[in-house]
Amino acid sequence: MSLASSSIGVILSLLLMLVQAKGRNDSTCPKSFSCGELTDLSFPFSLSTQPDCGIVPISHCDAKPYPRIQLVPGGQWYYAMGKEYTYTILLVDLRLRTTLTQHKCQAFNENISLSGSPSISYTAVDLQNFYKCNRPSSNNKDHFDGYHSYNGCDGFTIYYKFDGVDAEDILAGNHTANCSLIRLPYYQIEPGDDNLVNFLSSVFLVEWKLSDDCNECYYGGGRCQTDKKNNFLCYKANRSKLGLILGTVFGGVLVMITCLAVYLIWCYKRRKSNPPHFLSTRKLSYVFKNDVEGGSIYFGIPVFSYSELEEATNDFKSSRVLGDGGFGTVYYGKLKDGREVAVKRLYEHNCKQMQQFVNEIEILTRLRHNNLVTLYGCTSRRSCELLLVYEYIPNGTLADHLHGDRAKNRSLTWPVRLNIAIETAGALAYLHASDIIHCDVKTNNILLDQNFNVKVADFGISRLFPNDVSYISTAPRGTPGYIDPKYHECYQLTIKSDVYSFGVVLVELISSMPAVDMKRHSQEINLANFAINKIVECSFNELIDPSLGFDSDTNIWEMTSSVAELAFLCLQTDRDMRPTMVEVLDTLKEIQTSEFDNEKRAKLLLNQVKSQPSPNSDKWITCSSTTANTK
To answer: First CA to last CA across the chain, in angstroms?
Structure first.
């Protein structure tokens, strides 16, 4: 009977729910609902027409492009693009979006700051610190040592850094009194790019969390409210009929209610002990099985101790650094068993970095392909730092050899470049067949071994792509110069987004130029735009790297021109005109074996050019025919 006595409070709450005259009515509140493209919504969300069913109203379900959501009563309305995870939602700031469209520099007058209530709190996950300092300033340059600066807006300078290390007291002291801290969303950007405003975004991810009071109130049958003094209030209905109902039902259903009460208490205690949190311990517990250092995890990937990797990298010595990415630094290491490894050290042990950490483990442990980098293991989730351990690829990145430190060696002859293109296309075709979008295809993520064989790397922002949907709504992610412009415009991610990025890689392979170069003419900064213009004008000789020898070798001229034509199709704004990665792979193999003749070229064009071709397609078809006839 101890269980029954401990359940009296819950029993009374259940009975009270039966006689509620006002407030929450579970008979009219759906357990889940949809609004526009948002599906499987439940408390704390509710339709604006049913305010008693939740505390976060959603409206305009039939509006385009997205429904609207109000995080707190009387607060700002946002576009709701989708739920990324169980306790997160992807939002568009309407006011910031308008500002970025019309007056980009005025975006630095905005600041994303989310207010909550006693019932629910919010945390914006994908925001970057920018320090806006009025000009002139005598001490700011010294104070912001190690930061990048942007002077493209009149009247002020922006200081920023993307390596996840920010001094919390950066604004302390009178010497920075003319500076202010602002937080804004941004696309992934590599340090050194100068046109900062082009990388600002109006899309950001928000994590929500119910307060313990609201959690207890809601699951006890009440309704979360706020009084006039902004204090939490749990509203429950009038109890005037309690005695009658107790006398009527208590005897007959006591056992049933007691069992139900015990079950609810168990559910409540479980929820209490595991509060909802973005990529919380529950999520990690699913990924990590037998999670002890030296043990094994998901699909048998080993767990390394932090001390073991610290020793392997010589205490993460700076001379061991192989490179820096958007989310971490990669170090060379050597394990006790003699294996050479690359150890990625994520910048911060926070929810965003945890997302990359778990995502890369989940993706790589389900893949096996000769041209994908192998994940050897990772640290325990109990480790003081998040570390991923990969096979070491000794010959650098494709970017290094094309226009980086290794370019002077001129080791990438045309046959080697074409083989790199084929192996990369094969890896991407395999990913797409496995329902995975890479999301960050670029020459910095294409590693080369001593024989110049390809290993595609960096799956931190890759996405599982269900085969029953045509696209995923998500904030633009990736690297400037490689991002699909259609994805940038409508936030819809498809496998054709990878095809666009690979098109940029193809252009880099034939031109040896970087995807973005601020030193080039303003119309040529973006390599994709430059390549499209040159191909439309039939100026292949101004695009193809002369060091490849196309002027003295007819065969190289034919192959490089054909790859340029294929890249042109990959770079089409209309996604329907882009080929699939399988078609790209087949075409590259035909080019390599000199089987890509005029007939196959025409067939590929006809397959891609639909009833509404892109503005450049007609010009290029004429150009392509002319080029083919001169070979």
So the answer is: 93
